[in-house]
Write a structure and sequence with these properties.
- The protein is an alpha+beta fold and 325 residues long.
- It has two domains: 260 residues, Hsp33 domain, CATH 3.55.30.10; 50 residues, HSP33 redox switch-like (CBS domain Like), CATH 3.90.1280.10.
- Helices cover 38% and strands 25% of the residues.
- Helix 12 runs antiparallel to helix 13.
- The longest helix is centred in the N-terminal third of the chain and has 21 residues.
- The N and C termini lie far apart (55 Å).
- The N terminus is likely disordered.
- The protein binds zinc ion (ZN).
- The site of zinc ion has 6 residues, from loops.
Length: 325
């Protein structure tokens, strides 16, 4: 293993790191196992404070943000990765939801839901868990769950994730196993105030290692490791993922293993909206249509960003200037 083995190990860091908006990578020494722990606290609270989300959506967005922050670490790109849910049923109370993380650990999320009638509001009041909101996509096979990877200046990639389970974590783990052929464990949790999760992967063995295993020689390969880690990782409770520090989580799970944990990456809320992007959107609408909207809205075309609440205003002259070039 060529990764950062100079870094202090988990035992030394266990109680020293108190930042709860981090992604902590880890490796099990002398093994093909690597993973990440994500903890979201302030960054998550700021994200979900942008709208009056029902509890179940707050929690679902917490899981989605955690998942996006974990998954971008597995794809090694400059750019961003988002997880999107899209309902295909017009009666669904959840229309869509998306959560995004970029290579610098900047996260944002947004969801659209129905709460126009008392009945709909009541229905949301009765939902508590993330998977209640997830179930609003409809039965398995309905609705769409996908992962978008957008490298800066590169070709975007979209993966359709089968809704094989009733919760996001198991669907994503199933997808990783099917699409990348990499055994993956994913555990996600969110309590509406904090969120956290862990992803563990066993990378493919080298040809030499595979040969050694097939020849049944003692190559120092720990064949029980993955089984052991699977069992351990499932012992983690939701409240541990949402309250403990990343390094405490690692220590609690794997203190019998040789864990190497490099410096963590900070995660924070941020938005990529800009006046320039709004201008591009207005260009798409077309000049006549855009000017009509200016009139309809009393002289100012207001575009507000759902992610961060920023409002961009365009009057007639602004709109004309966009099309003047
Ligand atoms: Zn914004």
């Amino acid at each position: 293993m060529t990764q950062d083995t100079q870094a202090p190990n988990v035992d030394q860091q266990a109680s020293s790191h108190r930042d709860n908006d981090v992604r902590q990578r880890f490796f099990i020494e002398d093994s093909p196992v690597r993973g990440d722990v994500v903890r979201l606290s302030r960054s998550y609270a700021t994200t979900i404070a942008q709208k009056a989300y029902p509890e179940a959506i707050k929690r679902l967005l917490g899981e989605m943000l955690t998942a996006a922050s974990l998954l971008i670490s597995t794809v090694k790109i400059n750019g961003h990765l988002s997880i999107q849910l899209q309902s295909s049923d017009s009666n669904s109370l959840l229309n869509w939801a998306m959560a995004e993380c970029d290579q610098d650990g900047i996260i944002r999320a947004l969801a659209s839901w129905k709460s126009d009638t008392d009945e709909q509001v009541q229905a949301w009041d009765n939902m508590i868990h993330a998977k209640d909101a997830f179930a609003e996509l409809g039965a398995a096979g309905q609705g769409v769950l996908f992962i978008n990877i957008q490298p800066d200046g590169g070709e975007p990639y979209q993966g359709i994730v089968e809704r094989s389970h009733d919760n996001l974590a198991d669907c994503l783990a199933h997808y990783q196993k099917q699409s990348a052929q990499i055994p993956t464990l994913i555990n996600l949790a969110s309590d509406g105030l904090q969120a956290g999760g862990i992803l563990v992967q066993m990378l493919p063995r080298t040809a030499a290692e595979t040969y050694e295993v097939e020849q049944n020689r003692d190559a120092g390969i720990d064949d029980d490791l993955w089984t052991r880690l699977s069992v351990l990782t499932r012992t983690l409770k939701a409240e541990e993922l949402t309250t403990l520090d990343a390094n405490e989580i690692l220590y609690r799970l794997y203190n019998e293993e040789k864990v190497v944990a490099p410096e963590p990456v900070s995660l924070s809320f941020g938005c990529t909206c800009s006046r320039e992007k709004c201008e591009m959107a207005i260009e798409q609408i077309g000049e006549t249509e855009a000017l009509d909207i200016v009139d309809e809205q009393g002289g100012t075309f207001e575009m507000d960003c759902g992610f961060c609440g920023e409002v961009y205003k365009f009057n007639k002259d602004d709109v004309a200037a966009i099309f003047a070039e």
